[in-house]
Amino acid sequence: MAGGTQPRSGIIEGINVTPLVDIMLVLLVIFMVTTKLVDSPALPLDLPQASQSEQVQTVLAISITANGQLWVDGQATPEEALKQKTQEALARDPELRAVIQADGSVPHRLVISVLDRLKESGLTRVAFGTVQPPAASEGDERAKP
């Protein structure tokens, strides 16, 4: 039979990994050297100490009760006076933040109205205060999926 397959005398039985290991070791040495060069020592600095360890932020607390009454920093305030009070507080502290705490039964339009008054006065840092709900009891039907 012509052209048949005959066993070759120089068959490679496995892959020689020695050159691969040599290249990997060279790469490892290169990475170790360059990593040491990249790591520059820190400059010795003598930083000043602060007189207070904690920064105090001024917060304007705005509460809206279930009947729609507006309280600003613990004082009952008509909605029309909110803009003026906010501008006065901003004049004292330009970094002022407001936290709105509204009762769950307050209509959205009232909360949006308060947000609009704050925006008109120039106060843009506003957050909403919430409370952590109590852990759902076994008898609570809302906790069931």
Describe this structure in words.
The radius of gyration is 35 Å and the shape is elongated. The protein is built from three helices and five strands. Strand 4 (97-102), helix 3 and strand 5 (126-128) form a beta-alpha-beta unit. It has a five-stranded mixed sheet, covered by helices on one side. With 145 residues, it is of the alpha/beta class. Helix 2 packs across helix 3 (108-121).
Q: What value does the Rg take, in angstroms? A: 35 Å
Structural class: alpha/beta
Strand order of the largest sheet: 3-2-1-4-5
Low-confidence runs: none
Percent helix range: 25-40%
**CATH architecture heading of the domain at 59-128:** 2-Layer Sandwich
Largest sheet data:
5 strands, mixed
Shape: elongated
Order of helices and strands: HEEEHEHE
- N- to C-terminal distance: 77 Å
- Name of the top-level CATH class of the domain at 59-128: Alpha Beta
Strand fraction: 5-15%
CATH topology of the domain at 59-128: Nucleotidyltransferase, domain 5
Number of strands: 5
- Give the averaged pLDDT, no decimals: 78
